[in-house]
Amino acid sequence: MDKVHLFNLILYNRMGKTVFITGASSGIGKATAYKFAENGNTLIITGRRVEKLNELASELQKKSVAEVIVLAFDIRNRNEIANAVNLLTDQHKAPDILINNAGLALGLEPVNTGNQDDWETMIDTNIKGLLNVTRALIPFMIEKKSGHILNIGSIAGREVYLNGNVYCATKAAVDSISKAMRIDLLPHGIKVTQIAPGAVETEFSKVRFGGDEERASAIYNGFAPLRPEDVAEVIHYATTLPSHVNINDLLLMPASQASATIIQRKS
Ligand code: NDP
Ligand code: 8X3
């Protein structure tokens, strides 16, 4: 290898960041992994469906990544998280960017008939899961005195809508936790950003409606929802600004959506 090539390779690898993404097996997380598959970044892609993650890893490896690491775990399970984090090198235990994206809604029912198991799953995933992953990595980020945590909230965390009850509450919690993290981590040089999207067409509604594809696709009828790639673009922008700049909070909506429930649809 000639000297110029070697120098370029070293420079290229130095520019690369370690990006840890939860919920990378689908939707926003997957699009975000693609967006960061550049400039010699190392991607740590996580989720429960290991086969989806492995498929994604082989696609990402064709791009200009330094490395792709697949970690399969359930963010509700602290032991699984600890075991997964222990597999990482010290450098990768302190990602430059942690994207807390994994989450879900289950059901759309009033509180008087809502399924309590679904409530628990949403609370355990969207609130406790996000905290579990963050708590496992923060000590290493603090040791490094740098890093950026980006939490995916939702319009549902800003406005409660009919039958959204517990899902909305979990996303309001993400809003509070993001503010709290920003205060607590300020002395340690760690930035915290919340991105709160409106409707994004992903597997989200299919999961919410227990696999009912027809009901799920009706959510996006007659208007252009955000694509997961739109959200990935904004995540990338927010996490690649100069070190002295931070976006604390960003509400990202489809142009046809004015609020949680007001959507201009073509008939
Ligand atoms: P998807 O259903 O397409 O993706 C959800 C991701 O979360 C999957 O990769 C899934 O992976 C992962 N996940 C869910 N539960 C767990 C768990 N217990 N442990 C580990 N990973 C888990 O939906 P989106 O991409 O739309 O959702 C991503 C985030 O965006 C969520 O937090 C959601 O609340 C939020 N959001 C979505 C909006 C939308 O309209 N789609 C709007 C606003 C916010 P796996 O199943 O492999 O574990
Ligand atoms: C997902 C958006 O409006 O379906 O967080 O709750 S919404």
End-to-end separation:
62 Å
Give the mean pLDDT.
95
State the name of the first-level CATH class: Alpha Beta
Relevant CATH superfamily: NAD(P)-binding Rossmann-like Domain
Question: In terms of per-residue confidence, which ranges show pLDDT below 50 for 5 or more consecutive residues?
Answer: 7-13
Residue share in helices?
Answer: 40-55%
Number of helical stretches of at least 4 residues: 10
Form type: globular
Strand content: 5-15%
How do the strands line up in the largest sheet? 3-2-1-4-5-6-7
Please describe the biggest sheet, giving its number of strands, its sense, and whether it closes into a barrel. Answer: 7 strands, parallel
- The computed structural class is alpha/beta
Q: Count every beta strand, where a strand is a DSSP E run of 2 or more residues.
A: 7
Bound molecules: NADPH dihydro-nicotinamide-adenine-dinucleotide phosphate, 2-hydroxyethylsulfonic acid
Structure overview:
The protein has ten helices and seven strands. The protein is α/β, with parallel strands linked by helices. The chain has a single domain, classed as NAD(P)-binding Rossmann-like Domain (Rossmann fold, 3-Layer(aba) Sandwich), CATH 3.40.50.720. The chain has a seven-stranded parallel sheet with strand order 3-2-1-4-5-6-7, sandwiched between helices. The radius of gyration is 19 Å and the shape is globular. About 3% of the residues have low confidence. The structure holds NADPH dihydro-nicotinamide-adenine-dinucleotide phosphate and 2-hydroxyethylsulfonic acid. NADPH dihydro-nicotinamide-adenine-dinucleotide phosphate (NDP) binds next to helix 2, helix 6 and helix 8.
